[in-house]
Amino acid sequence: MANKTQATNLTGRFALLLAAGLTALCIGGCKKPTVTPRTKLPLLIGDDGAPIIRVLLTPRAVGAADLSAGEGVRVIADGKIRVPGRPGTSPVALIRRSGGLWMAGNTAFRAARVIVETIDNRDDRYVGFNAKSYRGRLHLVPNGPNGFIVVNYVNFEDYLAGVLSKELFPGWHIEAYRSLAVAARTFALHHMLHNRRSREYDLDNTVASQVYGGRSAETAKSRHAVDSTPGWTLTVNYKGKNRVFMPQYSSCCGGWVNAAVVLRDAPPIEPLRGGQKCLHCTSSKRYRWAPVRVLKTELYALLARNHASVKSLGGLSTIRVTQRLAHGRPVWVDIVGVNGKTARLRAEKIRLALIFGGSVAGKKLYSMNCQIVDAGPYIEFRDGRGFGHGVGMCQYGLQGKALAGWKASQIINFYYPGANIVRIY
Ligand SMILES: [Zn+2]
Q1: Which of 41, 86, 229, 286 is the most exposed place for a label (fewest CB within 10 A)?
Q2: CB atoms < 10 A from the CB of 38, how many?
Q3: What residues does 336 pair with on adjacent strands?
């Protein structure tokens, strides 16, 4: 697929894999073992030698955290134990912060950071936060004078066991779980490599990254899927180096896998080119959906909020698709203004503007795998297919393929052709 936008920003979202002694598993169809550079991955390593990931549990700053779901927790502030733990019970039910002062039970103190951990030595030890349990530790980081954010520092594999069960249905096939374990691990690793220096966390726990429910969400199936793909990560050979790429996934592709360019200026690598015919996601209720009409005035207002180029149009006259993928999915559109000028946007921005703008009509615009038609005062989105962006793995497709007898390695090779599966730790 010729596409000029693919040639830009080659390194923006594309991490160099710098692992020492990687084991190339070559189960995705590669012919020769992958040779990898002998440099270290810049990862945070925990007490047990496993990589640690930092997951944001609070979408915005909070004033208090309920820790009562934990056992034997202690509170450490700037390296000092402020509240010692006792086996079995949680001496601190609530931590608050107000006027720059922390309150843990009856103990008040000032600190740049608070860590909550358990003194329990059991294998399944955990801490509690707002009625859920989480493995690893909680880091409470001040945000404003009266608030803080809560970040779960957790072993990478434990994190994944709390993701898969939130991203897939409980009754789905183990090979669907194992396929997603490899993609989800790679997705998280890519974020870790990019965000480490710039933020207090690597990922959040929502659909904006990957949904994560901690230890409370783990199931025997999610655990088994993670344990049977230990450290397996996707890489691609690009410019002579083995690199981790961002393997996005979504609910239902609607029949064709989209190129990553529908979302971003992705590097021109084989695993993200899309174009595969996905025959296995027809069981999704969103495989096909009814036309959606949105008033031009509403669409203009919502797009203008985030796009100055649209705001300057003074109103929306019509929308023209300027570029499509081979199977017809719009990639770029021109928003034509009432003043005759145009603003070019990725088609995906229309859906995002409607979702984040709280549009009632827009809630039924399940994807931009559709035709965009001028219908007088409305823009109509018709021939709708699939749910989500449709790039990379299609979750309903994983299940359909697993039920048809495909193994995880075959499924991964279908959705990310040309990718290697390597063991990174
Ligand atoms: Zn599909």
Answers
A1: 86
A2: 10
A3: 318, 342
Q: Which residue type is seen at 298?
A: E
Find the 390 Cα to ligand 1 centroid distance in Å: 8
Beta carbons of 114 and 77 less than 8 angstroms apart = yes
Q: How far, rounded to the nearest angstrom, does the alpha carbon of residue 213 sit from its chain's CA centroid?
A: 13
DSSP secondary structure letter of residue 230: T
Cα dihedral sign, 270-273-278-281: positive
Tell me the C-alpha distance between 324 and 322, whole Å: 7
pTM for this prediction: 0.87
Residue 355 C-alpha from the chain's centroid: 17
Give the pLDDT mean for 9-23.
36
The rounded distance, in Å, linking the Cα atoms of 141 and 114 is: 7
Sole residue written with tokens 């202690």: 74
Residue 259 in tokens = 């190129």
Q: Determine the average pLDDT of the residues in 84-108.
A: 86
Contacts of range 120-126, beta carbons closer than 8 Å, 24 or more positions apart: 120/71, 120/72, 120/87, 124/215, 125/71, 125/72, 126/70, 126/71, 126/214, 126/215
| Tokens found for residue 211 | 């949904």
% of the chain exceeding 70 in pLDDT: 87
CA of 376 to the centre of ligand 1 (A): 33
- 276 Cα–ligand 1 center, Å: 9
Tell me: pLDDT of 8 over 80. Answer: no
Distance of CA 168 from the midpoint of ligand 1 (Å): 14
DSSP for 66-99, please give it: E-TTSSSEEEEETTEEEE---SSS-S-SEEEEET
Are 392 and 260 within 8 A, CB to CB? yes
Residue 301 banded pLDDT, cuts 50, 70, 90: very high
- Rounded Cα–Cα distance for residues 225 and 245 (Å): 21
**Beta pairing class for 203-204 and 52-56:** parallel
Structure tokens at 16: 């160099």
Distance 98 CA to ligand 1 centre (A): 49
